[in-house]
Design brief:
The complex is a heterodimer of chains A (303) and B (129).
Chain A: H1 2-44, H2 47-50, H3 54-69, H4 75-195, H5 201-206, E1 211-214, H6 228-242, E2 248-254, H7 259-275, E3 283-288, E4 295-300
Parallel strand pairs in A: 2-3
Antiparallel strand pairs in A: 1-4, 2-4
Helix pairs in contact in A: 1-3, 1-4, 3-4
Chain B: H1 2-23, H2 30-45, H3 48-51, H4 53-71, H5 75-128
Helix pairs in contact in B: 2-4, 2-5, 4-5
The chains are: A alpha+beta (303), B mainly alpha (129).
């Protein structure tokens, strides 16, 4: 019995020692625990934070409780986790708070941007209106100028018409003067005719034709020699030429563009006239490169 | 008295069984490791590298430690380190979220002040006209 009692006493002592030791560490643990609870309460009692992250606060509370209930060996680990859980709850709440603020600021920003855009639009409209007025003023100005220019042109036209009229009047006067001069000349001529009425042959010579032509049949076809008809016509030419003794005789021959033939035929006519007694100095004969085929005899400088 | 001795023996036996139970090797904490890895990845994608680098580094170190403990089959250690890595990473993600939101809010606040100044200037100009 005695040793058994000693054994029991030993056990009791051992248990008491453990209890005392446990109480001292429990006291140390209680400080950490109190810190955890205080720190958790700071978050949980702040309505601004606690309402935002109820789940996180619950998890932190569970972690604190686990620390309280945990075994000695797990204590550092459980303390670490509990502290982190409380930090997570607080930080998450602050993050949500910041995000809400950001959302508010974003709405405010949208409103301000919209206001600015409206303002810009109003300004642009005002500017447009201003431009429109400006251009209207410019249009009116240019219309006025156009009217003025039109008026000036009309005035100028009137002046031109007046000048035209003056010119026309002058021309009319000149025509009248010319007509008068002509009338005077005709009167003079009439008087002359009246005075020389008996010597009919002389005025006939004066008014005799100054031009005569021979056609192609006067010549041998394609040659410069006179055909029979031509020789007969030369006599008439000689009479015609002799009717105006003081005149120069211009003989112009054309042979359907054949210049050489025309020249040769002109020479033939000239020779014939000379042979008939017309002074060679009076005659100017030439072939021309015209299309027709005629001999054109003109008397120049004769009265 | 034999009965009391038996009681004491019973108590000792129960204690011994408890100690044995506490010492039995736990299962590999693959779930905790998975959660920790996922949390670290989330923190990175939340911008923790920029906004909460210290917390992210702590999470990465704890995760690396957990993996090392796993390799040594120290599953208790691995489980605790994985748990620490998980909360570290959650905290890093929350900090990153908070800092990003605050940064954006600050920028918007400055922008709004500028816009309000513009509006006030414009109002003055309109009044002057």
């Amino acid at each position: 019995m005695k040793p058994r009692h000693r054994f029991i006493a030993t056990i009791f002592t051992f248990v008491t020692a453990i209890a005392v030791l446990g109480a001292s560490t429990a006291h140390a643990r209680d400080v950490d625990y109190d810190n955890l609870v205080a720190s958790l309460d700071r978050v949980a009692s702040d309505p601004k934070l606690s309402l935002l992250v109820p789940a996180q606060i619950d998890r932190a509370r569970v972690a604190v409780q686990a620390y309280k209930d945990g075994g000695r060996s797990d204590r550092p680990y459980l303390l670490y986790v509990a502290q982190r859980r409380i930090d997570i709850a607080r930080t998450s709440a602050e993050a949500t708070l910041a995000e809400n603020e950001r959302a508010d600021l974003q709405r405010e920003n949208d409103r301000l941007q919209l206001d600015a855009a409206r303002r810009d639009a109003a300004q642009a409209r005002a500017e447009l209106e201003h431009q429109r007025l400006q251009s209207q003023i410019r249009a009116e100005e240019s219309e006025r100028l156009a009217r003025e220019a039109e008026a000036a042109r009309a005035e100028g036209e009137q002046a031109t018409q007046a000048a035209e009229a003056a010119r026309a009047e002058a021309a009319q006067s000149k025509r009248i003067a010319d007509a008068q001069a002509k009338a005077a000349a005709l009167a003079k001529k009439e008087a002359e005719l009246a005075t020389g009425g008996s010597a009919a042959s002389a005025p006939a010579a004066a008014s005799a034709p100054k031009r005569m032509t021979l056609n192609e049949s006067a010549f041998t076809r394609g040659e410069s020699t006179l055909a029979d008809a031509g020789s007969a016509r030369i006599g008439a030419v000689v009479d015609f030429v002799n009717a105006s003794p003081g005149s120069r005789v211009r003989v112009e021959v054309s042979a359907r563009g054949d210049q050489a033939l025309a020249t040769a035929r002109a020479q033939t006519v000239r020779d014939a006239l000379v042979a008939a007694g017309v002074a060679a100095s009076r005659i100017h004969a030439a072939g021309v490169k015209a299309k027709g085929a005629v001999v054109d005899i003109r008397l120049e400088g004769a009265d | 008295m034999t009965s009391s001795a038996a009681k004491i023996h019973a108590v000792i036996a129960i204690l011994a069984a408890g100690v044995l139970a506490a010492c039995t090797p736990t299962k590999p904490p693959t779930d905790q490791l998975g959660i920790a890895s996922r949390n670290v990845a989330n923190a990175r994608s939340a911008g923790a590298q920029q906004y909460a680098p210290q917390d992210l580094r702590a999470a990465e170190n704890h995760l690396a430690g957990a993996n090392a403990a796993m390799a040594k089959q120290d599953y208790d250690q691995a489980a605790q380190l994985a748990g620490e890595a998980a909360v570290d990473a959650e905290l890093a993600a929350a900090r990153a979220r908070r800092e990003k939101a605050r940064e954006a809010a600050d920028s918007l606040r400055a922008q709004n002040q500028e816009l309000e100044r513009d509006a006030a200037r414009h109002a003055e100009g309109a009044d002057a006209q």
